[in-house]
Design brief:
With 659 residues, the protein is of the alpha/beta class. It has 3 domains: 232 residues, Thiamin diphosphate (ThDP)-binding fold, Pyr/PP domains (Rossmann fold, 3-Layer(aba) Sandwich), CATH 3.40.50.970; 187 residues, Thiamin diphosphate (ThDP)-binding fold, Pyr/PP domains (Rossmann fold); 127 residues, Rossmann fold.
C-alpha cells in the first residue's frame, strides 16, 4: 500500500473515532499524523506481543488531546481492537479522552496537562542513560520520542525540563514539535513570538526544521537525530491543522471538536474512502503498519538471549535483580536514634538516606537547589551528579525547577528500574503540584521529600511558612503523605515508602529539632506508622481527652499531657492518614472512638480535615492564617500553638462540659 493511502485510512479512523464519541480533538491529530505514522511504521522499536518489553523505545504523546491519533496507531499495530476505537471516551473503555498509563497497552505516560509529557520524556531518557551505564548497552539501549505541540512549549515546565536535557546532553531523546500554529483560541501569533529554533539551540539541542507533511524529510530528520549522540534533538515539523480535510484545513475550530458529519463525508471522498462507511481500515493498511513485525520479534528474541546469557554471571544477575526485582526492606541498614536526644526530622532523613544509599543503587534523585537544607548534600557528594561526563552519577541537580523536577522524576519512575526522589521546601510543593497530581494518577513509585514543614521555619516569614500545603497534599487521591513525629517515625516512614511500590509518597519533615521518642514509644512506632495512626500514649484511666497530632505537634501534645497532670489524656500519633483509613474498620474505630472524651487535634497547619478524627464537636487547633517573620517559637506562641495556651483551651472546654 502506498504511503498516502495508508495516511488516508488513518485519517478516516481518527475522524470517525472522534465523531462517534461526539467529543475529542481532530485537527491536531491530523496535523501530527505524518510524523507519528512514519515513526511507528519505520523506526519505533517495540515488541508486537508485549507492550511492556523493557528495552522498547518510549513514545510519549505530550499533546495528549491528540489521543485519537495514538489509539489509531496502536490499533494498526495490534495493541488495540476496533471496539476500543468505537468506545472512545466512554465509561470503562481502554481509550479515555487523554492517554492514561496502565489503562491502554502502548501508552507510556498519562498526558493531557500540556508540557508535562515533554518533561516525563526527559525523565525516561535520564533513566535510559543511567541504566545503560550500569547494565551495558546490550542490556538497555533505546530511544525516547516525544510528540509535542505549540501549547506544550508554551508551558514553562517543558522548557525547564528541556534546559536540563540539553545540559545533560541526552542524545537518545528526540522530540517532534508539530508546529501547526493553531490553538483552541486561534492563531499562536496572538500569544507567542518565541523563536524556538534559537531558544532550543541556546540550551544545547540539535534543531531540525522540516515540512511536517513530507515523508522523505521526516525520515531524514529522524535519521539525523539518531546521529546526534551528544545532543537531544528537536524536529520542528511545519504542518497544517486538520491537514487533508475537505474545507476546514487550518481552522482553530477543528482543534477541540469532532468534524461535522458532512465535512467527514466530503473529506473521505477527497481521500478516496467510502463516504458512508465508518472505521475503514483495510488488510493492506494493517500489513503496511506491520511490515517490521517479524524483524522486531527477532530483535526481541536476540535481546532476551543476551540477557539470559548475561544473567548466568552471578554478579550481573544480582545487579539486574537489584534494578528490576522486588525490594526487601527488612534487609536494609536502618539507623537508630537515642531516646530523649533531639534531632530535626530532616536531619534524621539525611542519616536514613546515607545509610540506605549504598545498599540501594536503585535510589536516585536530588534537590531543587536546596541540598544543604534538604539534607541531600552528602548523597550528592558521595555519588556524584548525573551529567554528560558522569552517567553513573546518582544525584540529579535540578536547580530552581520544582515543577520540572517533579515531572522528570515521574518519567524516571515510568521508565522502570529506578526509584527517584526529589526534595524541596514544603511550601514550594505549590510549584510542583501538577506533577504530583499526575504522579498519583499514574500510581508511580516516586518520593517527594519536603522539609521546613510549618511556621517553625521562623524568620523567613509567611512566604516560606507552609500553612495549607500539608492538607492539600492529603487531598490528592492515591498519594501517601507521611509527617513523622521524630527520627524513629522518619525511619518507619521510609520503610513504608520503599515497600509500597504501587503509589507515590510525600515525606514531610521538620526544620527544627524534635525529641526522639522514648523506648516504649519507639516500639509502638515501628508498627504504628505502618498503620497510619496509633496510640503513642495511653491514658492511665478512662480518657477525658484524646489528642490527635502529627509531626512536630506529637511532642507538643506530650508536653500538654505533662502540664495537665490531673487530666487523663490519650495521645494518637497520625503520621499517615491514607494508610490509617485503609486499615480494617475495627482498628480505625479503636483509634477514633473517644467515648465521652474531648477529641482534640493539634497540627501546625490548616485545621480543615482534622474533623475526620475529632468529629463535629471536637477542638481543632492549628494555623488557619498566614504566619509572620520572627523566630519559630515566637510565631508559634503568638498564634496559640504552645503547651500553655493549648492546655488552657482544653481546661476551659472541660469546665464548660461540667456545667
Amino acid at each position: 500500500m502506498g504511503h498516502e493511502q495508508l495516511l488516508n485510512e488513518l485519517r478516516g479512523l481518527i475522524m470517525d473515532t472522534v465523531r462517534k464519541a461526539d467529543s475529542g480533538h481532530t485537527g491536531g491529530a491530523l496535523s501530527s499524523l505524518d510524523f507519528a505514522t512514519i515513526l511507528f511504521r519505520d523506526y519505533l522499536r517495540y515488541d508486537p506481543a508485549d507492550p511492556g518489553w523493557q528495552n522498547r523505545d518510549r513514545f510519549v504523546l505530550s499533546a495528549g488531546h491528540e489521543s485519537a491519533l495514538l489509539y489509531s496507531l496502536l490499533y494498526s499495530i495490534g495493541y488495540l481492537e476496533l471496539d476500543d476505537l468505537t468506545s472512545f471516551r466512554q465509561w470503562g473503555s481502554r481509550t479515555p479522552g487523554h492517554p492514561e498509563r496502565g489503562l491502554t497497552p502502548g501508552v507510556e505516560a498519562t498526558t493531557g496537562p500540556l508540557g508535562q509529557g515533554v518533561a516525563m520524556a526527559v525523565g525516561m531518557a535520564v533513566a535510559e542513560e543511567m541504566l545503560r551505564d550500569r547494565l551495558g548497552s546490550n542490556a538497555i539501549e533505546h530511544y525516547t520520542y516525544c510528540l509535542c505541540g505549540d501549547g506544550d512549549l508554551q508551558e514553562p515546565v517543558a522548557l525547564g525540563a528541556c534546559a536540563l536535557a540539553g545540559h545533560w546532553k541526552l542524545g537518545r531523546l528526540v522530540a517532534y514539535y508539530d508546529r501547526n500554529q493553531v490553538q483552541i483560541s486561534g492563531s499562536t501569533d496572538r500569544v507567542d513570538s518565541t523563536v524556538y529554533e534559537q531558544l532550543f539551540k541556546s540550551i544545547g539541542w540539535q534543531v531540525l526544521e522540516v515540512d511536517g507533511h513530507s515523508e522523505g524529510r521526516i525520515k531524514a530528520a529522524i535519521q539525523h537525530a539518531h546521529q546526534a549522540t551528544e545532543q537531544p534533538t528537536l524536529i520542528i515539523g511545519n504542518t497544517t491543522m486538520a491537514h487533508g480535510t475537505a474545507t476546514v484545513e487550518g481552522l482553530a475550530a477543528t482543534h477541540g471538536a469532532p468534524l461535522a458529519p458532512e465535512e467527514i463525508a466530503a473529506t473521505k471522498e477527497k481521500l478516496g474512502l467510502l463516504p458512508d462507511q465508518y472505521f475503514q481500515f483495510s488488510d493492506a493498511a494493517f500489513a503496511g503498519m506491520r511490515t517490521r513485525h517479524e524483524t522486531l520479534r527477532t530483535k526481541v528474541g536476540r535481546w532476551q538471549t543476551v540477557i539470559n546469557k548475561k544473567r548466568e554471571d552471578t554478579e550481573f544477575d544480582a545487579l539486574w535483580r537489584n534494578y528490576f526485582g522486588e525490594l526487601a526492606s527488612d534487609d536494609l541498614p536502618w539507623p537508630s536514634f537515642e531516646p530523649g536526644s533531639k534531632i530535626a526530622t530532616r536531619k534524621a532523613f539525611g542519616q536514613v538516606l546515607d545509610a540506605l544509599a549504598p545498599a540501594l543503587p536503585v535510589l536516585v534523585g536530588g534537590s531543587a537547589d536546596l541540598e544543604p537544607s534538604n539534607n541531600t548534600a552528602n548523597f550528592a557528594k558521595q555519588y556524584g551528579d548525573f551529567n554528560c561526563d558522569n552517567r553513573g552519577g546518582r544525584s540529579l541537580a535540578y536547580g530552581v525547577r520544582e515543577f520540572p523536577m517533579g515531572a522528570i522524576n515521574n518519567g524516571i519512575a515510568l521508565h522502570g528500574g529506578l526509584i527517584p526522589f526529589g526534595a524541596t521546601f514544603l511550601v514550594f510543593t505549590d510549584y510542583e503540584k501538577p506533577a504530583l497530581r499526575l504522579r498519583a494518577l499514574q500510581k508511580l513509585h516516586a518520593i517527594g521529600i519536603y522539609t521546613h514543614d510549618s511556621i517553625y521555619v521562623g524568620e523567613d516569614g509567611p512566604t516560606h511558612q507552609p500553612v495549607e500545603q500539608i492538607m492539600s497534599l492529603r487531598l490528592i487521591p492515591d498519594m501517601l503523605v507521611f509527617r513523622p513525629a521524630d527520627a524513629t517515625e522518619t525511619v518507619a516512614s521510609m520503610r513504608a515508602i520503599l515497600t509500597r511500590t504501587d503509589r507515590p509518597s510525600a515525606l514531610v519533615l521538620s526544620r527544627q529539632s524534635l525529641p526522639v521518642l522514648q523506648s516504649d514509644m519507639q516500639k509502638r512506632a515501628v508498627v504504628g506508622v505502618q498503620q497510619g495512626a496509633y496510640v503513642i500514649k495511653e491514658a492511665e484511666q478512662e480518657a477525658q481527652v484524646t489528642i490527635f497530632a502529627a509531626g512536630s505537634e506529637v511532642s507538643l501534645a506530650l508536653e500538654v499531657c505533662d502540664l495537665l497532670t490531673d487530666t487523663a489524656i490519650r495521645v494518637i500519633s497520625a503520621p499517615c492518614w491514607e494508610l490509617f483509613f485503609e486499615q480494617p474498620v475495627d482498628y480505625q474505630e479503636s483509634i477514633l472512638d473517644s467515648g465521652n472524651a474531648l477529641a482534640v487535634s493539634i497540627e501546625a497547619g490548616a485545621t480543615a480535615g482534622w474533623e475526620r478524627f475529632t468529629g463535629n464537636q471536637g477542638l481543632n487547633i492549628g494555623i488557619d492564617c498566614f504566619g509572620a517573620s520572627a523566630p519559630g517559637d515566637t510565631v508559634a506562641r503568638q498564634l496559640g500553638l504552645d503547651p500553655a495556651a493549648i492546655s488552657a483551651r482544653i481546661t476551659q472546654i472541660l469546665k464548660e462540659r461540667e456545667t
